[in-house]
Design goal:
This protein is of the alpha/beta class. The chain has helices spanning 57-72, 91-101, 116-126, 146-153, 171-188, 203-209, 220-231, 255-278; strands at residues 12-16, 21-26, 29-32, 47-53, 78-84, 105-109, 131-134, 159-163, 199-202, 235-239. It has a ten-stranded mixed beta sheet with strand order 1-2-3-10-8-9-7-4-5-6, with helices on both faces. The two termini are 12 Å apart.
């Protein structure tokens, strides 16, 4: 299969009459739009919720309990993986205490601070589930939204992105996110609305995509999407609820991402330019 060229792709509407879903064709990948989730979406699949956390001691007990309540209502097989990104507060101590009470909780402590998205990769690598759902520890994305993601995955999607259609963030964060997503659409032809949000990967996607990831910043989510497109995996998108932060402090843009993302952005642009010239 020829490499996916986002600079010169053809987008066309399609409809799957047998499954009642619709979307667009992007390169070799289907971008499948949202459909109503089914109540028993999870059934008996093994579900993993992966939660990166940095200095979120005030949110950990609540996000773990919320995840536990949701997963117990969906399946008998599940795990909650919280990756402590070398927090400087008492996050790790709280996680250890919670793990004594909740056997399905698996805390992981990074040896050094890596950032949210590199920490999510560590969680994915440790997870054992059939479906792996990533949410941040700030409680802004409800754990219950996993039902929408699993329902979408069951239509044939290996990667499911979220769209915070009504995002509950300050204006400056909305502006930064809007500019970032606009640049991704402009340079890479990305058609998902909100690439830097919650996501779900199937076991097949994890095994296929993670060995290909080279980024070590917030650009990881973009690389996962582009690699999934290149491999012809079906990509879905669901609209999710987004809540205001009620505890802790938003980390926002950090020096790690500020230095890494532009370099990795330009590196991927160069790679795609080379691929296009080869054709």
């Amino acid at each position: 299969m020829l490499p996916f060229d986002p600079m010169n792709f053809e987008s066309r509407e399609f409809e799957h009459r047998d499954q009642g879903r619709s979307g667009v064709q992007l390169g070799g990948a289907e971008i499948i739009l949202e459909q109503s989730p089914t109540p028993d979406a999870a059934q008996d699949e093994y579900l993993s919720i992966v939660i990166p956390a940095f200095n979120e001691a005030d949110n950990l007990a609540a996000v773990v309990q919320e995840s536990l309540d949701v997963l117990q209502g969906l399946t008998q097989r599940f795990e909650i993986i919280v990756v402590d990104d070398c927090s400087t507060d008492d996050s790790w101590q709280k996680l250890q205490a919670l793990a004594k009470e909740i056997p399905q909780l698996r805390p992981i402590l990074n040896e050094k601070n890596l950032g949210c998205h590199p920490s999510s990769l560590i969680g994915y690598q440790a997870a054992q589930g059939d479906y792996l759902y990533f949410i941040p520890a700030d409680r802004q994305i409800p754990a219950a939204e996993i039902s929408k993601f699993v329902a979408k995955a069951k239509t044939g999607c290996d990667v499911v992105y979220s769209w915070r259609q009504k995002r509950a963030d300050p204006p400056h964060r909305l502006w930064i996110s809007g500019c970032y997503n606009m640049l991704l659409r402009l340079f890479f032809g990305i058609r998902v609305h909100d690439v830097d949000s919650s996501e779900l990967l199937t076991r097949r996607a994890v095994e296929s995509l993670l060995p290909k990831v080279r980024s070590d910043s917030a650009f990881i989510t973009v690389e996962l999407l582009m690699e999934a497109s290149r491999q012809g995996l079906a990509i879905g998108e669901v609209v999710i609820e987004h809540r205001p932060r009620v505890a802790g402090v938003a980390r926002g843009i950090n020096l790690h991402d500020l230095s890494k993302v532009p370099v990795q952005f330009l590196g991927m642009l160069w790679w795609f330019w080379q691929q296009r010239n080869k054709r």
